[in-house]
Amino acid sequence: MDAIQALRAIAADPKAYARKWRQKTGGKVVGTLCSYAPEELILAGSALAYRIVGGSGGISRADAHLQAYSCSLVRGALEDALDGQLDFLDGAVFPHTCDSIQRLSDIWRMNAKTGFHLDVVLPVKLDTASARQYMTTVMANARSELEALLDRPISDAGLRQAIDIYNGIRTTMQRLYTLRAERPEAISGSDVHTIVRASMVMDRRDFLDNLTRVVDRLGPSSDNPAARRIFLSGGVCNLPDVYSTIASAGGSVVGDDLCTGSRGLTGTIDTDKDPVAAIAERYARRAVCPAKHSGITSRGDELVRLARAHRADGVIFIFLKFCDPHAFDYPYLKSMLDDAGIPSLLVELEEQAISLGQLQTRCEAFMEML
Fold this sequence. Notes:
Rossmann fold; iron-sulfur; metal ion binding; iron; metal-binding; 51% helix; four-stranded parallel beta sheet; alpha/beta; 370 residues; 15 helices
């Protein structure tokens, strides 16, 4: 089985992979609910970080605990936990990001049978010296708590090894993203989608090996000049394969700032500093999500910069319905794109009721407009 096929198999059934990994290694599996979860600490504790990105199907049990207007990420994740589909977890780490994740943490602690529970209360405002100091303190406390919960020491040497692995992943992913921007036909959007999904659940050492082999083997390609260059923005964690839909509509995804994408998979950690402080610094200076603050127009400025850097013909926003942080940001982001002369399209998806046919029609109309 070649590297990309191995990644496809894992992306297709991440729960089965996590169960097999746990049985084979005897290690612990820790669920995470956001890309702000300090995965380096989990890896240094010899555990597997498993990103929970939504549910596996219909929702019934979760509705007894959450309002129907909660986003489908929160409702679907809780449904899987209550239904026993996450019984392979030894614990869960909840970084405090949006209000929905914070409330889910309380409900999860009282009702889900997924082992230990750890809240990591990160700062919201990230552009001050006090916020950076607070972030370092939070990471140091999380390290101590994880040591007790995992019953494993998290040494400085272990942290440095974990940092090297994650730096390798993020550097190689940046190579992949750069290559995709320069030559979109070198790798299909579906394969990039597969790689990202596997990156959130696979043993990170094995993932880095497979990722490196995939990127190293990418050769010259013949671009399709007729394809419109599309940049994706937003946050749908359990993202369907919209890349194939966009491609069949005449577009080619050349970049993204998705939370399950470049936001979490780029940006290296300084190896010359104290490891905890260096990890905290990376999480403080990485590209922010709508639940964090680093400036009044920082997200809009960055989106316009990225769209121009990727020579995007247009931007497609992909949001979950009822995702308030993204919905609140959207008007000013669209306005800044309009001012920069970059067309955009907003697509809202509901995880349990995705209509790819409707998405196809809207994408085709957007490509014609471009």
